[in-house]
Each structure stands twice: as C-alpha cells, then as structure tokens.
Amino acid sequence: MANQALNILISAKALAYVREAARSRYGLDQIHFIPYSGQQLDEQTLARVDIAFVSRDITGRSTKYVLDPATDIFYRMMEQAPNLQWVHVHSAGVDRPVYVHLRDKGLSVTSSTGALSGIVAQSALAAVLALNRRFRFLEQAQREHVWAPLLDELMPADLQGQHVLLAGWGPIAQTIQRYLNMLGMRVTVLRNSAVTSPTDIPMVPYEAMQRLLPETDWLILACPLTETTRRLVDRNALEAMKPGACIVNVSRGEVIEEAALIDALRNGHIAGAYLDVVEKEPLESDSLLWDMPNVIISPHTAGHSTGNESRVADIFLENLNNWVQGLPLRNLAR
C-alpha cells in the first residue's frame, strides 16, 4: 500500500491540520485529499474515494435520527462511493445506522475511542457532584432570589463510601472510576464478563446487575450500545434500585427505558438523573424530562471540548499510517 496513492474524503475544515501532520509526522506524501464543503460530489470523484474521515464538523448538530443537510449528503456519498474501504469516525460510538451499514458491507470502520474519554469522565464527575450537592435546587432558589440553605431533608449525603455500579470498562469508564475513587466512593464494574483485572476493582457480568441494584447509590452508564446493553435499565431494573439512588447516563439513550425512568423520577424512587443522551435525539420539546427539578440534561455534549479536534485527528493519522504500512487499525469496530 505504501506506493499506492490514497484518496481521502475529508472536511475542508479538517484538511489543513491533517495534510500537514500526515506529511511532517509520518512522511505520507502519497495522499490525495478530496475536500468536502457541503456539496454533493460527482460520480467520477466519488469513485476515487478510498477513505472517509467523519470529523465533528461533518456531523454538526445532527443526531442519529435527525440529520442536517450537509451531514446527510456526506453520509449518502459514503454509501455511494464504490471503492470506499475505510471510514474513521470522530466519536467513540459507531452505532449510527450509516456506520453499521458500512461495516456490514465489509468496510473497516474505526472510532476515536480514547480521544474524548477524559472530557466525558469530567462531565460524569460534574454530574455526580451537581446532583449530590443539589445544584438544580440552588439554581432555582438563586433565580427566585431566595436564601435556601441545604438543611434538614435537603442536606446532601456524604459521597465517601457510597456504592457506584459502573456499566462499561472502556477508557471513559476507567477514567470515571479513577475520579470516583478520588472521592472515596466504592465502585463495582458491570461488563460482558467478570474478567479479572490487574486492579482490585470488583467486576461482574451484566447478568448480575439485578441483584446489585438494591445496594446501589449511583448507577453510571458508560457502556457501548449492544444487544446486551439495549434497555439494560428497564422498568424492572429501576424498581429494583435502592430508593433515592441517582442515575448518570453518558453512554446511549437506548440503554434506558425512558418512560419507566420518567415514572421513577416523578414518584421519587429515583432521586435524580443526569442525561447526556436520550432515547430519541433531539429530545422532544414536550418531554416531561425538561422540567423535572431532579434532572439535568445536556444535548449529547458530555464529550465536547476545544481540544477534541486535534485528538481525533491524531487518532485518524495514526490509523492512516497503520493503513499505509499494512498494520492493524486502532479502534476497529467489530
């Protein structure tokens, strides 16, 4: 492959950084870039595309279910490019229908797992602190010019010693665990199997979740969306949870049965939730979740930060060098 010119479909915004780094860092001169500025490319140009880099500016404000026109065009071009072999995605998750379809067609699809892990973990930590310290209540009191100390039933419980059930053990979950450990919280990890770890962190398979929920103060979801984790937190799981427990979801909205969660939040069985993701994005304007005083919502932005573009591009460039050298690709979707 080293002697074969490659054609990469890439956003005009990402092009300058990637082109310069490809040459200076890896000496990749046999690369042709096809910049995308929001317009459909002709069939002849699409036939030249070998690789597509889906950077954050390509997806913009699109969600899995609602696409901006520029995102839709890029996705359709990937489907139409007859010689496309590999797609790199800016996100950690590659469960959008277009990526699944391309992978099922036999293309290599790689993610940017690791680039956003620290940022997402910071959002999860902020959510735990905000829910525990009742920031929503304090925010409302400030808005109403009311001096409302956190006393009596509003007194926050100590986080130290509280039990966290953490779903997932990828880079995001591992960083979250380190942060929680700093707070003195006890973490049990849910993963596909109770694989032994070089640490002393308890790890159990997903099948064990139900028996652990009654003793769980926090359920933090940082797992990929799979057939195992889809609706992992259903009505039965929510009813089994310890009264007054809180939920933090930085994985995928489909991991939670949303209607059941709303019921549990309304009746107080679940004390609070931070939801960076919901079942269908964007969240409908009439959803009850918007106005719940015990819910914090962010629009799938837990991983957003100014440094992401270069971190994602660096993973793509490492993989591009691997591709040229015939080496295994990092973060290859299975």
Span between N and C termini?
A: 23 Å
**Outline, from the CA principal axes?**
elongated
Task: Give, in spatial order, the strands making up the sheet with the most strands.
Answer: 8-7-6-9-10-11-12
Low-confidence stretches: none
Overall helicity: 25-40%
Structural classification:
alpha/beta
Order of helices and strands: EHEHEHHEHEHHEHEEHEHEHEEH
Largest sheet: 7 strands, parallel
Helical run tally: 12
**Total beta strand runs:** 12
Q: Give the amount of beta strand, in percent.
A: 15-25%
Average pLDDT across residues? 96
C-alpha Rg, in Å? 22 Å
Question: What does this molecule look like?
Answer:
By secondary structure, the protein is an alpha/beta fold. It has helices spanning 12-26, 43-46, 56-59, 69-80, 97-104, 117-132, 135-143, 171-182, 209-212, 235-240, 258-266, 308-325; strands spanning 6-11, 31-36, 51-54, 86-89, 108-110, 163-167, 186-191, 203-205, 218-221, 245-249, 270-275, 295-297. It has twelve helices and twelve strands. A seven-stranded parallel sheet has the order 8-7-6-9-10-11-12. Strands 2-1-3-4-5 form a five-stranded parallel sheet. α1 (12-26) packs across α12 (308-325) and α6 (117-132) packs across α8 (171-182). The longest helix is centred in the last third of the chain and has 18 residues, at 308-325. The mean pLDDT is 96.
